Amino acid sequence: MQWILAGVVILAYAFALRVVSRGVENYGISRAVKTYRIRYLVRTVNLLLSLALLLTLFVVLGVEYEQLALVASSIFAVVGVALFAQWSILSNITASFVIFFAFPYRVGDYVKVVDKDEDISGEIEDIALFHVIIRQGERMITYPNSMILQKSVIKLPRPAPEATEAESP
């Protein structure tokens, strides 16, 4: 009976993997998100679903809770220490998920990040895993994802093209 239930769990996992992956891909395409960002998010979601599958299979196949809890707590302790040491990386990855699903600005938009210390305005060139790249004239500004979610961002009108010397009278 356990093996039949394990087979059902694996089939449900395969179905969930396909549905969630397609859902994320379709959502990303509808928002004109770059392909590599969609692939990154799909891989991350697949990893989380795979971890859920392993946990579910352990329970279905009768692995004792004490053994499972010991292994899981050991893994979480090591991962927790590693992530605490690199908290900014974790916050930028988390912010990347938020930006993927809820950021109102897209590549090509002209924005101004309200920052009292620096004038950060220009065209969004790229939204990467850890940062947003803003082109300000000839300068390329790399702004961390976690910071751009903490600051006010103003969408600016597209600047008028500069007149060339051949066009001027």
Automatic annotation (TrEMBL):
What are the entry keywords? Cell inner membrane, Cell membrane, Ion channel, Ion transport, Membrane, Transmembrane, Transmembrane helix, Transport
Keyword Membrane listed? The answer is yes
- Outline the extent of the Mechanosensitive ion channel MscS domain: 89-154
Any single Pfam family the record assigns to this protein: MS_channel_2nd
Oligomer status and interactors: Homoheptamer.
Give the GO cellular component terms, alphabetically.
plasma membrane
> Its Gene Ontology molecular function terms?
mechanosensitive monoatomic ion channel activity
SUPFAM superfamilies per the UniProt record, alphabetical: Sm-like ribonucleoproteins (SSF50182)
- The protein, known as: Small-conductance mechanosensitive channel
Q: Which family does it belong to?
A: Belongs to the MscS (TC 1.A.23) family.
Coiled-coil segments, which residues?
none
Q: Where in the cell is it found?
A: Cell inner membrane; Membrane
Cited function = Mechanosensitive channel that participates in the regulation of osmotic pressure changes within the cell, opening in response to stretch forces in the membrane lipid bilayer, without the need for other proteins. Contributes to normal resistance to hypoosmotic shock. Forms an ion channel of 1.0 nanosiemens conductance with a slight preference for anions.
What transmembrane ranges does the database entry give?
40-61
The UniProt entry lists membrane topology as: Multi-pass membrane protein
